[in-house]
Amino acid sequence: PAGGGCDYTSLQTAINAMTGGGTIMANGSVGSNVNIPAGRSFTITGGTISVSLTTASTGNHIIGMTAQGFHDDGGNNIFEGNTATSTFALHSVGGSFAFGNTLFSVQLGSNNNEFYNNYMGNDLRINNGSHGNWVHDNYRPLIGSRSTAFWIQSGAYNNTIENNDFSNTTSHSLSILSSDDNIIRNNNFSDSGENSLSTSRGIQDSNGNDIIDNDFSNSKDNGFLITNSDYNLFESNNFDGNPDYGISNTAASVGNEFRYNSFSYGYDGFLDCNGCLNTSFHENLLLNNTHFSI
Fold this sequence. Notes:
The chain is mainly beta. The strands form two sheets. Strands 2-1-3-5-7-10-12-14-17-19-21-23-25-27-29 form a 15-stranded mixed sheet, with helices on one face. Strands 4, 6, 8, 9, 11, 13, 15, 16, 18, 20, 22, 24, 26 and 28 form a 14-stranded parallel sheet that branches. It has one helix at 11-17, and strands at residues 2-3, 6-7, 22-25, 33-36, 42-45, 52-55, 61-63, 66-67, 69-72, 78-80, 83-90, 97-99, 102-108, 114-116, 119-120, 124-126, 134-136, 150-153, 160-162, 174-177, 183-185, 202-204, 210-212, 224-227, 233-235, 245-250, 257-259, 268-272, 280-282. The protein has one helix and 29 strands.
């Protein structure tokens, strides 16, 4: 690798030598665990790290690098066109941008990040009370392991997830657990492979979320399950063609609103439990279900 007009034997050596930061152009294998310390910022292009890159500072621009993992502890960094074969994690501070990357597993545990136009191999999780994240226009190609697509959990709130393709998973496609006031809009969660009636599929202990204009059709088994979750809005979603229910509102959920959705061409259309109160259900389409529509 080269930086500041000098050649170095490893990326960490270059970072340690360039106390004021700068630009590093890396080629080939450049180390194992690499750390960018607080107080320095770099533009780094290229290179392969055998384990992980950790940024403890802000203002870094990481371009076209390959590693098992990337860990952003400093926040306000840019990750562009990188490849992570294991975990890509935005921790602690937030305010970072990640786009055009090819990633396996992603964890957004910080706030106000923008994550877009990435190729996903496995799951994406927003957790640890994270908020203000914008996740959009990401895609999961039909290769490799494809278990659960998307988790919003552990108190995450006020995040926007839109225009993503998380279809064709081997397990459930969307799981919202203990998280409020998120917007999930215009995503493709169709053709998921959920194989059991599980509270992990759908929404549990979560309130005030807006789930709008998504495709949840043609799962391999069950549809979408609502458990102990109140005052969520379901609008203009497609729940067609599921071999069990299209959607099941269960476990004393209160005040959920369903409008302009389609629950058709499956086994059961819409199931509302006896203990669910103040359900609002209007102008939905329920056609040609083989058991019952509602």
